[in-house]
Amino acid sequence: MIVSRRFAHERAAFRRYRDGDRIVLEGETAYEMFVIRTGAVRITKQVEGRIVVLADLGRGDFFGEMSVLESLPREADVHAVGDTEVLVLGPGALLLRLRQDPAFALEMLNRLSGRVRALNSQLVEALSKSAGARGDP
Question: Which of 6, 32, 35, 102 is most buried by its number of CB atoms within 10 A?
Answer without folding.
Answer: 35
